[in-house]
Amino acid sequence: MSKDIRELEPKAVWNKFADLNAVPRPSKKEERVIQFMLDFGASLQLETLKDEVGNVIIRKPATPGLENKKMVTLQSHLDMVHQKNNDTVFDFDTQGIQMYIDGDWVRAQGTTLGADNGMGVATIMALLESTDIPHPALEALFTIDEETGMTGAMGLKGGVLQGDILLNLDTEEDDEIDIGCAGGVDITARRIYELEPVQANFTGYKVTVKGLNGGHSGMDIHRGLGNANKIMNRLLYNISLHTDLAISEIDGGSLRNAIPRESNAIVAVKVTDEFLANFEKLVNTIKSELKVTEPNLIISLTEVALPENVMEKEAQQKMLRGIYTAHNGVYAMSASMADLVETSNNIARVIVKDGAIKIGCLTRSSVNSGKMDLANALKSAFELADFKVDFSGEYPGWNPNPDSAILKVLSAQYKTVFGTDAKVVACHAGLECGILGQNYPDMDMISFGPTIKGAHSPDERVSISSVQKFWKFTLEVLKNSPA
């Protein structure tokens, strides 16, 4: 279907997006896409370099008549989130994304699309390749590993970039201009437990939670979506209240920045009529609670072979109570910006197997003290359940600058081109601007982009008409950028 994608307007952008999506580019495995970008810059005979962590920088001189304008750094990240539906057979390490058109949307066949942040990358590539678009001197910054640690932005040293203005093309609503974002910290809780043989009068079951929407653990955290790990824990906790339950394995969620859509557990249960009735009642209750936000939720109980070993009882009780206590979702709303989530947590990953438990969370906040307050609350909850807790991957937020010169340009151009005011916002996602600003404090930064829905999930899609709007807006911004 990539042929159909290449016929969409603006062709310059969609062709580059199709080229990019043919290159496997998982986070932390960006070698191929880095070389792809280096080859692209070299093919245009533009100044092209790679820094010591793998970020790619390409520079293009100003078009005649715009040499007096400030150099603009256009920035997007090369990696993409890898998520697929359970029944989709796909190898992200070797295959290119399979795209198709669905009305005004471009989607992928059962996987994430990579529009986050591939549309930004493709737009920059189209500008670098253009021969008839007026623009100031351009500096393209393609960062790596944004989705699983922002190590590209963190590793970019001061003095490498030459631009005065940074346009980050990673916002996902085309009527928004972003001037701030949340910082984050990864929380990992681990503990070991003793294995014990299962009792002979028990029955083996597989408990499955699936069909959830998933989504971006920052941008979608306020939507009341189901978290497969919390739902699974609720099921197992309540089963344990009414009958003998022994947990053998749990495998729930995937990436820290994706709201978990699926969880599977292998358990042993002393079956009674009361157990089956209580389980069915609880399933109906959960489905009723989530019927608006998660209409496709499936919770099933399937008899399987009895596992040989299970988790010892005390560790099981502490784990279930620890996860139950750990906060998931919105923790605090911003007092300074209306409708902005200030602090949140995503219980993203739960793995129980072979005597070891690992729980992974991503805590976000636009206020550093609020981020650490929630992080310490989670740490305390898990430590009370005898877990060892580590913090890692911390990155700062991006403090809004309402007096930004480039903000004034974007706001004015949006009003001129579209006849209405853009929404000036901060977001509850982790943009790289806050990190880049540490080494480039004088760089004027802003973020905008086309409308993308369902990012970090197989429902990811990008609006075709919005890409047209975004392209038109970007060209006007560059033409009218500050001298």
UniProtKB/TrEMBL annotation:
Annotated protein name in UniProt: Cytosol non-specific dipeptidase
Entry cofactors: Zn(2+); Co(2+)
Entry's Gene Ontology BP terms: proteolysis
A Pfam family hit: Peptidase_M20
SUPFAM superfamilies, per database record: Zn-dependent exopeptidases (SSF53187)
Catalytic activity: Hydrolysis of dipeptides, preferentially hydrophobic dipeptides including prolyl amino acids
Signal peptide location: none
Source organism (scientific name): Cellulophaga lytica (strain ATCC 23178 / DSM 7489 / JCM 8516 / NBRC 14961 / NCIMB 1423 / VKM B-1433 / Cy l20)
Keyword Metal-binding: yes
Domain Peptidase M20 dimerisation, chain residue ranges per copy: 208-292
UniProt keyword Protease, yes or no: yes
Key words of the record: Cobalt, Hydrolase, Metal-binding, Metalloprotease, Protease, Zinc
